[in-house]
Write a structure and sequence with these properties.
39% of the residues are buried. A hairpin with a 4-residue loop joins β3 and β4. The radius of gyration is 18 Å and the shape is globular. Helix content is 36%, strand content 19%. With 264 residues, the chain is α/β, with parallel strands linked by helices. The strands form 3 sheets. The chain has a 5-stranded parallel beta sheet, with helices on both faces. Strands 6-7-9-8 form a 4-stranded antiparallel beta sheet. A 3-stranded antiparallel beta sheet has the order 3-4-5, with helices on one face.
């Protein structure tokens, strides 16, 4: 294996975690083996900071992570004490909401379900999470989760409109998140730059995802990996050295990581 340090940036739902049960018990020993070998793993997720802190607690791990589709980086000080605990990249949810409200037409708004305004049982159906996890999923500081009920053409026009007003619409499967002008790729690049500057190491990066909002992140990594997702058309990813799994998460995650490390 190369002497360069390996840094894995990974999506969670549908990539590392089973997309239905949100568990990864079957590969947990392998994950701990990677960590013990000195490989750094940074979840890069649309999940909130509260969800990711809860994830760390539940799996008895202490990952640094990127939350809300690249909105903030948390816990780099766990890698080195001189690194910051939190790096905020995005404007606040209140600022994003003001821009969104002032610039999105009523025609579009009539096709949109603002998930944070729904009753908890309706939120539970959309997120697919246990009821006791909904409060964590809705504790958003930098993103507005919505569902869009229009046609594909209308959805594309809506996303174009969002981009024109300096925001982004991050599609991750169950929902669309309205975010600031950031994404998983930009936050990953910021994290690598900070870690490299402080530690003086050269890094080989592995990126793992399964959906549309992971594409830019995968393009920016040395070894991009795609976990099988039957609901996502992998032909949308035009990357020459893309490593694909034949299994869904979480076994697919272990398979692509093993392949990438073997190549390295």
């Amino acid at each position: 294996m190369s002497k360069k340090k390996i840094l894995i940036f990974s999506d969670l739902d549908g990539s590392l975690l089973d997309k239905e049960t949100f568990k990864f018990d079957v590969i947990k020993d392998y994950l701990k083996e990677l960590i013990s070998s000195g490989i750094l793993i940074i979840p890069n997720s649309s999940k909130t900071e509260s969800e990711l802190l809860d994830f760390n607690k539940q799996c008895n791990l202490d990952f640094s992570f990127i939350s809300e589709n690249g909105s903030s980086i948390y816990g780099l000080n766990k890698i080195d004490q001189s690194l910051p605990q939190r790096v905020v990249i995005s404007r606040s949810i209140d600022e994003i909401q003001k821009i969104y409200d002032a610039n999105i037409s009523l025609d579009f708004k009539n096709k949109i379900t603002p998930i944070l305004e729904l009753e908890i049982d309706e939120q539970q159906k959309i997120f697919g999470l246990p009821l006791n996890k909904i409060s964590l999923a809705t504790k958003r500081m930098h993103s507005i989760p919505i569902q869009f009920s229009g046609t594909e053409t209308e959805k594309n026009n809506f996303i174009k409109n969002i981009n024109e007003i300096g925001l982004t619409a991050q599609s991750g499967g169950r929902i669309i998140n309205i975010c600031d002008n950031t994404n998983k790729s930009k936050a990953m690049s910021k994290a690598v730059k900070l870690i490299r500057k402080q530690l003086g190491n050269e890094f080989i990066t592995i990126g793992v995802g399964d959906n549309e909002n992971d594409i830019e992140m995968l393009k920016q990594t040395d070894y991009p990996c795609l976990v099988k997702n039957e609901n996502f058309d992998s032909s949308l990813i035009n990357i020459d050295n893309l490593i694909k799994s034949s299994k869904p998460s979480p076994l697919g995650w272990a398979d692509v990581i093993k392949t990438a490390i073997q190549i390295i």
